[in-house]
Structure formats: structure tokens, C-alpha cells
Amino acid sequence: MSKVIVKKFESYAKTIPEILGEAGLVEKICSYPAYRTGRRQAGKDQKQILIKPNLTINLPPPCTTSIELVEEVIKFCRKNSRAKIIVAEGSGGCDSEKAFGDLGFRDLARKYKIELLDLNQAERIEKENPKALKLKKVLLPAIAFESYIINLAVLKNHSAVKMTAAMKNVFGFYLNKIFIRWPATRSFSGGWWNKSELHMYGVPESIIDLCRYIHFDFNIVDASIGQRKSEVHGQP
Q: Which positions fall inside the DUF362 domain (predicted)?
């Protein structure tokens, strides 16, 4: 059974470790949560942890996930697991590498010696679900099926679905077919969103279908400062 924890925000440094501890993340990412005891605990050693922030564009929070939140999750995982840690995003409104650079994630990666991955450039595998509403066959990053995924979303109003929280962050794994067919076009040139097909199919339907393919293992929705009126150019 899923556990939902709602906690009053004080600071990322205080609140995030408390939430991760209360939610039992240690047991989910490592079967030896207390190395010093030498006792095996219930759980599973994860070889690879993929942290998925919302970096849809190179704008600061609350449009995007706070780097302070991501840093606290990295510190917690590093303390409690020997898994490889990857921060991954496939930005929709700018080049992912630009979002990583402008929002400080390159410096963060150097500080903790972790990998940054542009999901728009990642190797893809074909997945098929005849029961899908719209996406009955889709190419998705292989790494999504090889990792323990920690989803770090932000709470925002959305023009198509009223609000966006944890589930819509799955859009970062998708890429319009034209970009997949012609890799040379993947470098973002502006003018349109590289996830625009999902809006054509219908945002609610696309969320449902993608979440049937990709399962987030652990979710945090940062509502410390929400965003009103728009998912991109909204107001705190």
C-alpha cells in the first residue's frame, strides 16, 4: 500500500530528510540501512537511482524543481545507498543541457560526482500496450526501466489539466517522433515544444498512458511555493 505524507515546510535541509526517513526510503534503496550493525534488513539493494526533477525550461522555481530539494535527496541517497546516482531530465521548452547549466545542476553534479543525463538524447527502446488510450506503441529511454526512479515534482496550475503534480513529470521521458527519427534535430532550436504530440493526444490521456509504461518508485511534490495561472509563465 502506498504511503502519503504531508508535512509543513520549514527548510529543505530539515524537512526533506525527515520526509525521506518517515517514508522509509532507506529500506527501499538499500538492504543494509545500518552498515555499522552488520545486520541484513528487509529491502533491496538498488544499483542505480534516477532522480527526475521538473526542469521543463530554464526558469527558476517554482516553475522548476528547486536545486536545494535535489541536493537533499542526493545527500540522503549517498548516505544510505551505494547505488549510482543520476539526475535526468528531458526538457520540453529548451535544451536540457541549457536547463542543467542555467539552473546550477552542472555545479551540483561536480560537487557530488554524479551523472547528468539528457533524456532527450538517451537510448530508447520500444514499448507496447494495446490497452493504452493513445500511446499504444512508444519509444522510451531504456534507463527508465533499469533504475529506481525518485520523482521530484512541483505543484503548479496547468492550462490543460488545472494542476500538475507528480504524475505529469513523466512527460520528460517522452520525445516527439520527429526528434527520434532524425537525431540531428534533437538540439533544441526554439519555436515549439518537443513534447507537443502529448498535447495533441490529450494531456490527461498521455499522463495515464505514460504512467502505465514508466512507474515512479518514490514521489515528492514540492508545494512549499506553488505556481498559479500557468505551468511555465505563472505566478508564485
A: 49-230
